[in-house]
Design brief:
This protein has three helices and five strands. With 155 residues, it is α+β, with helices and mostly antiparallel strands. The chain has a domain at 51-131: RutC-like (60s Ribosomal Protein L30, Chain: A, 2-Layer Sandwich). A hairpin with a 2-residue loop joins β1 and β2.
Amino acid sequence: MSAEMRLKELGLQLPAPAAALANYVPFTISGKLLIISGQLAFGADGKLAPEHCGKLGAQVSPEAGREAARLCAINLLAQARAATGSLDAIARVLKLGAFVNSAPDFTAIAPVVNGASDLMVEVFGDKGRHARAAVGVAVLPLDSAVEIEAWFELA
């Protein structure tokens, strides 16, 4: 089944891709490589929900952090579709780079980031399995709980 068909089967509608917040572009393409800039946990309304702002292990629960990571992945897919015209133009998810706004003693970063990784596998099947970095950080733009970037191989 194609990625676009899986997206429909999951009942997911991609939002309009978010505009860059500073002096960078949302994505670049070089040869068969599509790199998507870090995406925040914006909801369908283009805003960060209060439960997706703040530090994991303090203001944000692990469950809300996982939801935030899934929203980041949805926004990555919206950027990928904007870059290519269709998610079916993606041959493989190569890597996710995840940043989790973490309290100093919060160490459950990997399960939070699984919110994004699991969605990539749901949408792309085995082609969604990817390399990954998951890093706890002191702060993120707009106090987002999570930010995730992606590297895709194009068909």
